[in-house]
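Colleagues,

Please find the record for the two-part complex below.
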Amino acid sequence: DQQVKQNSPSLSVQEGRISILNCDYTNSMFDYFLWYKKYPAEGPTFLISISSIKDKNEDGRFTVFLNKSAKHLSLHIVPSQPGDSAVYFCAASANAGGTSYGKLTFGQGTILTVHP
Amino acid sequence: SAVISQKPSRDICQRGTSLTIQCQVDSQVTMMFWYRQQPGQSLTLIATANQGSEATYESGFVIDKFPISRPNLTFSTLTVSNMSPEDSSIYLCSVRDVKKQYFGPGTRLTVT
């Protein structure tokens, strides 16, 4: 049972354009969502997060949008840079302040390639 | 932010042996988490390690196979016991603060 899904295994974008990575979830108990970037042979690097009480969070070139009714979130990167090429994972947690604190459910990942 | 280091960074082990992975954090944390990423798969939580108590394991993971120690607030170990090729994965240590969750660089394990 895949509770967090990233349906696009890969995405190719031209440098300077917008990258949009999508993520869907099924568990309505999820209340905190995170995006990570991962290079080969490294651990995931935290990018940005959003609480379920918000529908948008922005940090520099990265913006995450949350649509609770659709159980969908997306990560926008603008402008995209070649250094952004990596695997991007979305992750979700339920009951962030309780016993599930720190327990993340990850999507399968999307390979982003930004061409110069 | 938390800085996490892991040892070893990679290892190749024989079937039936055990490997202990160390995780060191540069600050005191209440809970530490162990994840694994099997080849071509996403990250999956193995267990939560609290200092001074037994680790809590997720469904599909058992203490006999993945014993965990948590002797203090900055250190934890995960042992992969009686290894088989299916245990070939990247094993990652993780800690969380209020808004962010951090991961170590991972230990790439290959079982032959």
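The mean pLDDT of chain A is 92.

Comments are welcome before we finalize the supplementary table.
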